[in-house]
Amino acid sequence: MARRSAPEVNAGSMADIAFLLLIFFLVTTTIEVDSGIASKLPPPLPPETKPPLIKEKNIFQVVVNAENRLLVEDADMEIGDLTDAAVKFLDNGGGTLPQNSCSYCRGDKDPESSDNPKKAVISLVNDRQTSYKMYLAVTNELVRAYSILRDREAKRLYNETFSSMTNRFAEWPATEKENNPEYDELEERIKKVQELFPRNLSEAEPQNRE
């Protein structure tokens, strides 16, 4: 009796199916990426530039030691209280001279604290052994303080939060930016709010602290 040959499998269609499955998984799979802090570094200063003189009362000292202990103005503080403390410092408006006064500040106007938001500087110093998680948490709290005050002023001036303004600005179609009065006006409003509460957040090189 003659033996019948086994039918051949069409490998071409299987390759097509495998290729389609590969495309499906590439399109639907979410790839996790490391997240960080979105921050734009300032441009480098000329070598001959001298650092500006800053009054001690205009500096808000924040220190994180090797044990992730948070010290604010040489006093222990919980991470949950940092934003409110930073807002209070930035919004103090304690300047007594006309050139240092702040008409839009709503703080305590303590003469021993910051003169105005433009002169107020938050100084952040981390130990070399500070955990990255703690570093991010502290930085996020400080950045949130600026966001709160900018949102407040944008709402007062333009009846819109600063966050909403920056989101609209970022999402503006590229083809509609040039010679567009609305786009230019939005850009000017954002700059105005940033000038009222500039992000003067100074981060020193990590140190070995006790």
Report on the structure:
The chain is flat. The protein has helices at 11-28, 82-90, 132-158, 162-170, 181-196, and strands spanning 59-64, 70-72, 75-76, 121-126, 201-203. The model has no long low-confidence stretch (mean pLDDT 84). Helix 2 crosses helix 3 (132-158). It contains 5 helices and 5 strands. The longest helix is centred in the C-terminal third of the chain and has 27 residues, at 132-158. The protein has a 5-stranded mixed sheet, covered by helices on one side.
SSE arrangement, N to C: HEEEHEHHHE
Q: How would you classify the helix and strand content by structural class?
A: alpha/beta
Strand order of the largest sheet: 3-2-1-4-5
The backbone outline, from C-alpha atoms, is flat
Q: N- to C-terminal separation? A: 93 Å
- Overall mean pLDDT score? 84
Report the β-strand fraction as a percent range.
5-15%
- The number of distinct helices, counting runs of at least 4 residues, comes to 5
Which secondary structure elements does this structure contain, and how are they paired or packed?
Elements: H1 11-28, E1 59-64, E2 70-72, E3 75-76, H2 82-90, E4 121-126, H3 132-158, H4 162-170, H5 181-196, E5 201-203
Parallel strand pairs: 1-4, 4-5
Antiparallel strand pairs: 1-2, 2-3
Helix pairs in contact: 2-3, 3-5, 4-5
